[in-house]
Design goal:
The chain is an alpha+beta fold and 223 residues long. It has helices at 88-99, 156-165, 182-190, 196-202, and strands at 6-10, 18-24, 32-35, 39-41, 54-57, 62-70, 102-103, 108-109, 111-116, 119-135, 141-152, 172-175, 216-219.
Length: 223
């Protein structure tokens, strides 16, 4: 079952207290979207021709995908997935128990870890839209599509560490990629390309205009 999309639930945002509820999907998504955004202040004063972009922050990453719940019996599901034998309503109830329902112990919905292939995403559900697409003659649904969106959720200490790892006040070790130049690298790390001479001296680079891809560089903290 390791090739199936799985969502596990946790009680805390450090993901150290697993809950008993998890869900494994019978049908994997056809695709998923992993979105990264950067926010800028784009307000333009009245009468002004434009305004320079001002960095505001980086919102949490998001994951979204569609999954199918099926109770037709036509899907060859492993015997270890008894959920495939349940009616659509029961399958969706179990899914909502993991991802959507209010957990009175933590006073909010559960923290989640999505695991599928190389994807491991710690998150919370932000939206769920259900579309029922196939029915018995009596109107009981046999298949439904769930459109789900999740936002990255990490604790404050982890967030602080991630922010510090990107700080110009710390030493960075980077690997030069094709097309990189020392001023470009300094601009990416320090926000100012003029530090390239200091970085060249720090790394004992003579010809900084000809950096070979794969070269390891140390970028010292700004004093």
């Amino acid at each position: 079952m390791h090739d199936r999309l799985k969502i596990a639930s946790f009680k805390d945002n450090k993901f150290s207290i697993p809950l008993a509820w998890s869900t494994v999907f019978i049908i994997n998504p056809a695709s998923y979207t992993h979105e990264h955004k950067v926010d800028y202040n784009e307000d333009v004063p009245v009468g002004a021709p434009g305004t320079p972009l001002m960095f505001k922050g980086i919102p949490p990453e998001t994951i979204s995908f569609d999954v199918i719940f099926d109770a037709t019996g036509a899907i060859d599901a492993p015997t270890l997935l008894p959920v495939s034998k349940l009616p659509i309503g029961a399958q969706i109830t179990l899914f909502k128990k993991v991802c959507f329902d209010y957990n009175g112990d933590i006073h909010e919905p559960n923290y989640l870890v999505i695991n599928w292939g190389t994807l491991v995403f710690k998150c919370k559900l932000t939206s769920l839209k259900l579309e029922y697409t196939l029915f018995q003659q009596n109107g009981i649904p046999l298949r439904a599509k769930a459109s789900c969106s999740f936002v990255k959720a990490i604790d404050a200490s982890t967030l602080s560490k991630e922010a510090n790892n990107k700080s110009p006040d710390l030493t960075h070790l980077i690997e030069v990629r094709q097309g990189d130049s020392l001023p470009l690298i300094c601009n990416n790390v320090y926000g100012d390309p003029s530090y390239y001479m200091e970085v060249a001296r720090y790394n004992k680079i003579v010809n900084f205009r000809n950096l070979a891809p794969g070269t390891k560089l140390y970028l010292p903290p700004i004093k």
